[in-house]
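I have been asked to look over a protein record a colleague put together. Alongside the sequence sits a line of tokens, each denoting a local backbone shape. Please read both lines and tell me whether the tokens look consistent with the sequence. Take the sequence as given and treat only the tokens as open to question. I have pasted the whole thing underneath without changing anything:
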Amino acid sequence: MTELLAREDICRVGKSLFDRGYVHATAGNISVRLDDGFLITPTDACLGFLDPARLARVDAHGQQTSGDRASKTLALHRQIYAAATVFDPGTRCVIHTHSTHCVALTLRPGAGDDGQELLHAATPYFVMKVGHVPVISYHRPGDPAAAGLVAQTITRYGRQGTPIRAVMLSRLGPNVWHDSPAAAMATLEELEETAKLVHLSPTPPEPLTESQINDLRQTFGARW
């Protein structure tokens, strides 16, 4: 992916997410890993009104070289790339939102603690397209400690043979990553829609059985 295309894709995806209510106000951020650094949305920018020329350009060492001031979550994004590319070398994009139903699930008693997962295997497409989503307990926005915990969690799941594409920051929102902005957006969409289904369900839905999950592994290569 060229830098020009990456800039355009970040803005296109940001507007799509904003227009459909996946992000609001100045919440959320998007980054793309380049061969020699990163692009990331500016701090306090609205994802619905991004300017490709004003995206923050950061070198491989995390030093900003151009654009508006980088989002305060830059350190988190860099640690996600470092940990995730060990298991998925093609990882190129990270998206963070404050998606309503995902956040709502962490507000339930005991649901926002380390060691929890945001959702069980509620639907086949959640299993196939998203996978496990571990919860990281609450830290203030931009806290370096959260970035370290996220990286450790990615490494732990990967070594267990179930590489992940998302984590949930309790009371804040999900971080998802994939090989392009479009693919990361699709992962986020599936995650938020599954959270919505579970949140709206009058009783907690039963998860898919191990046999059903194994069928998804064998047929579609699901990483669960």
